[in-house]
Fold this sequence. Notes:
Structural class: alpha/beta
Helix content: 40-55%
Largest sheet: 5 strands, mixed
Oligomer: single chain
Strand content: 15-25%
Number of domains: 1
CATH topology: Lambda Exonuclease, Chain A
Shape: globular
Distance between the termini: 67 Å
Strand order of the largest sheet: 1-2-6-7-3
Amino acid sequence: MKAIRWDGQKIKEPGIYSDVPLSVYHGQAICPGPSVSSSGLRRVLEINGGSPAHFYSEWSGNAEKIEVEDSKAFYLGRAAHHLMLGQPHFARSFAIRPAHYTDYRTKEAREWRDQKIAEGVTPLTDSDVVIIKGMAGSLGRHPLVSQGLLAGDVERSLFWQDKATGIWLKSRPDAIPTDSGDAADLKTTPSVAWTDLVRSITDFAYHAQAALVREAFKACLGLELTSFSLVFVEKKPPYCARVVMLKDSDLDLGAKQNRKALDLIARCIDANHWPGPGEDHVTHIELSSRYRELAEAEQ
Length: 299
């Protein structure tokens, strides 16, 4: 499906759009009503370590939202994405710190850094570049990636409106496949060991993100998602890469959690009330079964 070139106006029709800046995509001015992406849907649920209060404090729909600074892992990941997915104009998004600034302790170095950030450019150090090149090189050598697993249309944004709540949903996959329903997403990680990946997928609820991509494909492209793979690459030598595929049953669970999150956000918007974890009720809490076993064994 050919992307609609964004004209700078509010998006009122579901579809796939090009030329939407990332800052605009994450904001509220892009749609005629409240909008939320996968990160927000995951953030509002307590099982993911969040709550309505946590979501609202960071949501662009909150005029007093807290600006969350990019972590090093996040901006290194974005840079690796940029290189591996063939996105143009790397220099417009990233700038390597001049060699004569060995750190940011001098006023001049801080001014250079702050100016770049003000321009929407992410500053990188020489050591950052080494890491980025290491990740990109490892990914390029992976047989599945070299065969086109991450190929497709990049920098495309999908928008559609949830019929039940009226909230606009948005998804921005790394690459939208042009000849299949097989999607993949690139993730950086400290380790691609199996147990570590299971923990990462759980901690970041990547299954819910994949479920939203599946819904986006159907709502905006009329396309059934046939598979969703996660392409992990380590952020330190030897920069090992590993590809895993999520199970349909886990995507189904993610879809149910997304539904729960949307309904919760809608209720909070209507009530203008954004409670923290457990704020509206009191429940019993128990020791972990493992601790109880150990304690009882000592008696």
